[in-house]
Amino acid sequence: MSALANAARSSLFENEQQRIQHLENLFDMHINPVDGVDTAVIAVCSATFGVTFVFMVIAWLNRNYRPIRAKNLPLTTAMFVSGVLWFVGDIPMNGHVLLKGSFSNCKEWNIWVRVLFCFVYTTAIISRCYALDRVFIQNRPTRGFSYYVPTITLLAFVIVYSIVTEAMSSRLTIGYIADLELCSTTKGYVYVTLSLLWVNWLIIIVMMIRLRNIQSTFNEFYEFLFICAFGIAAMVKTNVVHYTHPKYPLVRGYRVAETVGDVFVINAILLIIMAYPVIMCVWRKEEYEREWLLRLRTDGLQDMYEANLNLRAENPQAYERMNTSTANAQKAANMRDNIWFLDPPRFAEGYPAESYPADFAAHGDSSAMTTLHINDAFAASDDLAAYEAHSPQGHRFSNHSTVSLESSTDAAKARQLL
Predict the structure, then answer these.
(1) ∠ CA 286-288-293 to the nearest 5 degrees?
(2) CA dihedral sign of residues 275, 280, 285, 291
(3) Are 285 and 65 in contact (CB under 8 A)?
(4) What is the pLDDT of residues 138-171, one digit of tens each?
(5) Rounded distance between C-alpha atoms, residue 13 and residue 4, angstroms
(6) 20 to 30 Å CA-CA from 385: which of 111, 116, 171, 287?
(7) 256 within 8 A of 276, measured Cβ to Cβ
(8) Are 209 and 228 in contact (CB under 8 A)?
(9) Is the distance from CB of 25 to CB of 18 less than 8 angstroms?
(10) Could you tell me if 227 and 269 are in contact, meaning their C-beta atoms sit under 8 angstroms apart?
(11) Cβ neighbours of residue 20 under 8 Å, at least 6 residues apart?
């Protein structure tokens, strides 16, 4: 193919300038040749992915840090890899390099790199939405065959679509014009592909609306709101450019806008998901995790969130579950300094059971009380001081510490499902 293209070029044009002049006469438009600006765009976009890559590396090095694990790191990594390959497909298809040699394989670059991984990227976002929907709306864990069915179905559809378009004639989809060294794309193929991408984003919007009522301080509704805003903006931009300027790769301003816009959206969405917990992991690791667990326990959803999202570590740290009532949540906020969160010492051996606070003595028989209030057991500073006198090392709450009946309902459901 490369030899054929070079032969055609040598017979028609003596140099690149003649080819550009011929294209301007043919299409009656001003054409910008590939130059240093395109090289700079590739370099800047690559550096942008480099920044996101640093965040991904830090996240993987701290993959057992619970706020990071909650972001579904493998799925986020799949988004990053697909975003990089999407950008790689943009380079030849948006006209940042001369379409010679391996870059002349328009069909392969567009179908199997650019479009395929654009679909994979949006499918990964759908999978993230679905994971939260499973936990908080359906009250089901993020594992098992039923969890993977939607993702597998979407990916299978994308692969089938790619195979079909690859098998179709280039006159109906996309092909290479050797004489002009151009990729030619039909309107029908462009419109069908963009329509399918719109379907993916509509699914994301529907999932986002379902997630809007998650009763948790870790409500990711606003996160997905920004993700949808960026995604829809990118789709509108692409639709407008393809509809109004179908030969946009020949115009520097449009091809730069298309590539930079795609790269910005790809990385912005990834950083919306990962940047804050990664930054907190670097600068305020223990403090942020304490705050993270405190807010989660205040919601009364830690058991569900951890078990269903597989967040429990091999040697999980023990945390006190806060009561979900407003009064006890306020008490918890007022006594944060008196709560041991990060790996406190265990009960001192030989500590007499009769010296435990009353609520803990009754823990073995849940029917003996209407409501268990952990925070009330230590509401008085005198009681806390007396307890510390018995055990200077403090105490440790288990991951299944007592809670109010109202806050234990969701956790009980999660344990039944598991």
Answers:
(1) 95
(2) negative
(3) yes
(4) 888 888 888 899 999 999 999 999 999 999 999 9
(5) 14
(6) 287
(7) no
(8) no
(9) no
(10) yes
(11) 31, 33
